[in-house]
Amino acid sequence: MTTHVGSPPERETPSRPGGTSGASRPAPRFPRRTRLVRLGRFEIKAAPYVFIAPFFILFGIFGAFPIGYTVYASLFDWTLLAGNQGFIGLDNYTRLFGDALFWNSLRNTFGIFVMATVPQLVLALIIANLLNRQLRARTMFRMGILAPYTTSLVAVGIVFGFIFAERYGLARYLLDVIGVGEFNWRNERLPSWAAISAMVDWRWTGYNALIYLAAMQAIPRTLYEAAAIDGARPWRQFWTITVPLIKPSILFTVILSTIGGMQLFTEPLVFNYGRIQGGSGRESQTVAMYIYERTFSGTFNVGYGAAISLILFLVIILVALVNFTLVRRSIRTTEE
After folding, report:
1. 85 inside domain
2. Strands (E), 270-328
3. Is 310 within the bounds of a domain?
4. Is the overall model pTM greater than 0.90, yes or no?
5. DSSP label at residue 219
6. 86: left (phi over 0), alpha (psi -120 to 50) or beta
7. Structural domain contains residue 299
8. pLDDT tens-place string over residues 134-165
9. CA nearest 114: which of 183, 193, 211?
10. Owning domain of residue 294
11. 39 located within any domain
């Protein structure tokens, strides 16, 4: 090819996609970056489930599985000595509803629960209201009311055993001073209920009082100041400000006390010197004690004990719901 002098050099024409002048170059891709983006999105979506997974795993192992296995065992004639004798359906439940000892234990459980829970929560509310004021050595008092909760139940049982001793007990001495007759604290129904309720109240009143106190301290002081300016007395302030604003804590303690009160075992057992029958005439035997008696002593009937346990579980749920509804309505009426 002839080149003229002074003419500019020829330029190469760039290849176009789809043209014939050169091969097309693909657009750059970023596969590693795409995978990281997808992984990040997956982590964001899966993170909440990962955080709550331990709870459901532990609940499945220690909650759902025992309940399911209890239902399974209650449908069989199963003893620790003879083993599983076969499927019997609802025979354990039919036998249970005709068992006078079960109804006696359920009656004792409800009686002790009512006698222990109502004074316990009322005293806790009063103590918390007193500790919420400007007092000297408030920290010492707060630590002191929690001391019974940290005490061993065996030690508590020994102390209350001396208090309610039949001959030389402190309770008998005080009753003699005021001229009240003697009580058989272990072989009469109502006295045994009262003694066991005193043990429960002594241990749990301070614990509930601290829960109420923590809720009271979260209430703004300006509300009380405004009420005082309007002429409201301390008692009126307590019912119109304090009680409605600590409603969640009250509901929490009611549910907690219901669950604990319906499962009483150690207090009546220790009070009766380890007798699982709860007195000579079963005056203070609770449902939990009766479950232990039928499952791990006597006939060692696991299937029958499982049926009682399941009925107790349903009773606890029912009573807790009833208490929750009643307390919620009463507090709502107080607010109005």
Report:
1. no
2. none
3. yes
4. no
5. S
6. left
7. yes
8. 777 777 887 888 888 888 888 888 888 888 88
9. 193
10. 99-151+186-335
11. no
